[in-house]
Every structure is written in structure tokens, then in C-alpha cells.
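ok so i was messing around last nite and threw this chain in just to see what happens. nothing serious, just curious
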Amino acid sequence: MKKWLIVLCCSASVVASMLTSGMARSFIDLIAFISILALAWELHDSTKVKDKH
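result:
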């Protein structure tokens, strides 16, 4: 499920970036980068096996 959120976030940022320019475009790119990084971090954490010791 989270993989689809990453793909959707990338698609939305590309479309928003194409429709804007200047500072708004930079802001959208920064928000997209942070959200993709957060989703990837959560996806990485959810795949780890927790030790029961």
C-alpha cells in the first residue's frame, strides 16, 4: 500500500511542478521530496524483523 502512495506522490509532484513556476515550484518540489523520504523511511522500518529478546 505504501508503495502506491510513493508512486502517487511522485505523480502529483510532477503534475504540480509542470503547472507552476518560481518559488511555488521549489516549494512543491521540497514538500514532495520530504513526503517521499518519509514514506520510504516508514516502508524501510516496516520491513525490519524485530527481535523478541
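not much to say yet. The chain has two helices and no strands.
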